Amino acid sequence: MFDRFVRKLEATRPAPVADAHCDGPCGVYDPASARIAAEAVLSMTKKLLALPVPDPSDAAAYAKYHNTFARYVAIKEEQAHIAKSELLVLWTDYFKPHHLEAHPDLHDIFWKAAKECSYAKVELSLHHAEALMGHIEKIHGIFWATKGRDVAYYTAS
Length: 157
Hints:
The protein has 157 residues and is an all-alpha fold. It has helices spanning 2-12, 32-50, 59-94, 97-102, 106-122, 126-146.
């Protein structure tokens, strides 16, 4: 009975159509958080590659090395996951079809960036960490171009 009443009400007084641009206010989207996480991935990758392996006969030094190595890996993996999450939110929530028309390689750049996040977790590769930063730099430029701004991009050194 209630369902019939609701259907009759909807037929006589339909709800207005609401158009929404984003899931949230546009000010909440920014590639900076993905960039910061990717910079941490790059930093941890460099630190891991530079970490000197001590003589295995020095048990204390060897234990310290493994502890430091494990902490760096944990940070690298966590930050790669954060970067991927931030990128996926931008890709799926912020960018719209008209952005894709203006930037036809947008999907490819995001796909490659997401894949580099995965590679950065699976491997200890300076190449993948730097490639991730390169893709995020492109996304950064496209993002700000959609807002009519040309913003400088800063990379970690």
